[in-house]
Each structure stands twice: as C-alpha cells, then as structure tokens.
Amino acid sequence: MTNNPENLGIRYRIDASRSSFTAQAFAEGMLSFMGHNPTFAVGRYGGEIQLDSDNREVDSMLLIAQADKLSLLDKVS
User: Fold this and answer.
1) CA–CA distance from 26 to each of 5, 34, 66, 75 (Å)?
2) What is the distance in angstroms between the CA of the first residue and the CA of the last residue of the chain?
3) What pTM value is reported for the model?
4) Which of the two ends of the chain, N or C, has the fewest CB atoms closer than 10 A to its terminal CB?
C-alpha cells in the first residue's frame, strides 16, 4: 500500500449480493495424474479493492471467504 497520507487511494467494496466467486484447486507433483482439479462456489465472502489515486492501478486487494460456505461444483470420480 502507498504510505503517502495525501494519496489515500480509491476504495471499492466487493458486493457479494451482486457478484459470484468461484475458486479452483489444482493437483500437482508426482501423483497429479491421479488428482482432481475441483472447482468450488464460494457462498459467503467479502472484501475490498484499493486503487492508487495517481495511476488507478490496483494497490491492494483483500478477499475473505468463509470456508464452511464452499460448495463443490464438479463431479468427483
């Protein structure tokens, strides 16, 4: 984050009621051929994105997901 107090940036709060969020895990290593790359729907989450006010690039992103609200989207064989 920018430490300049004059450059506080622009903050956007993530509106989970108007958004969707999925996450995918990947199997790697020697046994990855046996693995499954599951995709999860994240049911409860929130956070914010902060942009640098000078160049409007992402300065920081905070995303918090509630682990007990993950749902598996694809079949596991």
Assistant:
1) 40, 12, 20, 15
2) 44
3) 0.65
4) C
